[in-house]
Design goal:
By secondary structure, the chain is α/β, with parallel strands linked by helices. The chain is about 60% helix and about 10% strand. The chain has 7 helices and 4 strands; from the N terminus they run H-E-H-H-E-E-E-H-H-H-H. Helix 4 packs across helix 6 (about 150-160).
C-alpha cells in the first residue's frame, strides 16, 4: 500500500472515529485505531475510495458496553443520495482477537457499501423485519467475501455463532454470491 494511501486512511479515521468511552489506556485506543486502519487497507481500491472520497458518509462510534453482549451494528439515516452511516463498536470489541474484530468490522463496512437502508424503510411486520435483517447481514457478508476477505468473515462467524449456524450462514452467503453472478 502506497504511503500516501496509508496517510489518507489515517487522516480519514481521525475525522470519522469517535471514542465515547474513557480511554485510560492509550495503547488500547491505538490498537483499535490500527485495526480500523488495517480493515480499510484491506479493501479493494474502488471500495476504499467510496470512503475516502466522501461518497459514503461514515461515523464510527466506540461506546461503553450496554451490559449485554452485543455485536457491532450499523445504522443509516437520510435519503439514498445523502445517506449517513454510523457503525457502533462497543468497548468489549476492542479486546477481541484481531481477525474476529476485523471480520465484524468488515461486515459493518459491507452494510455501508451495500447501502443498508434506515430501519424506517424496512418491512413493517415483525417476521418480515427479521427475514429482511437476515438478508441484509448475508449481503454484507457476501460483499466481504467478494472483496477477497472471506478469511476474516469466517473468523468472525466461527467465534460468534454455534457451528450449525455457521454452516447455514456460509451456505446462505454462497447462495447470495451465486445469485449475484447469475443476475444480469
Amino acid at each position: 500500500m502506497v504511503t500516501t494511501t496509508v496517510s489518507r486512511i489515517s487522516d480519514y479515521l481521525s475525522l470519522v472515529v469517535r471514542f465515547q468511552v474513557p480511554v485510560d489506556n492509550g495503547k488500547l485506543k491505538s490498537v483499535t485505531l490500527a485495526r480500523f486502519q488495517k480493515a480499510l487497507e484491506c479493501l479493494p481500491e474502488d471500495v476504499l475510495d467510496l470512503f475516502l472520497s466522501g461518497a459514503r458518509q461514515l461515523t464510527v462510534l466506540v461506546v461503553p458496553d450496554p451490559g449485554l453482549p452485543m455485536g457491532m451494528s450499523t445504522r443509516s439515516a437520510g435519503p439514498p443520495d445523502r445517506r449517513r452511516y454510523t457503525v457502533t463498536v462497543f468497548e468489549e470489541h476492542q479486546s477481541w482477537a484481531e481477525n474476529h474484530f476485523l471480520g465484524a468490522f468488515l461486515r459493518e463496512l459491507g452494510h455501508v457499501v451495500g447501502g443498508r437502508p434506515p430501519e424506517e424503510e424496512w418491512p413493517s411486520s415483525r417476521a418480515e423485519r427479521a427475514l429482511y435483517k437476515e438478508m441484509l447481514e448475508c449481503r454484507a457478508d457476501a460483499m466481504v467475501w467478494k472483496w477477497g476477505l472471506k478469511h476474516y468473515s469466517l473468523s468472525y462467524l466461527h467465534a460468534t455463532f454455534p457451528p450449525h449456524w455457521v454452516d447455514r450462514i456460509v451456505s446462505d452467503i454462497s447462495r447470495t454470491i451465486l445469485e449475484d453472478y447469475e443476475t444480469p
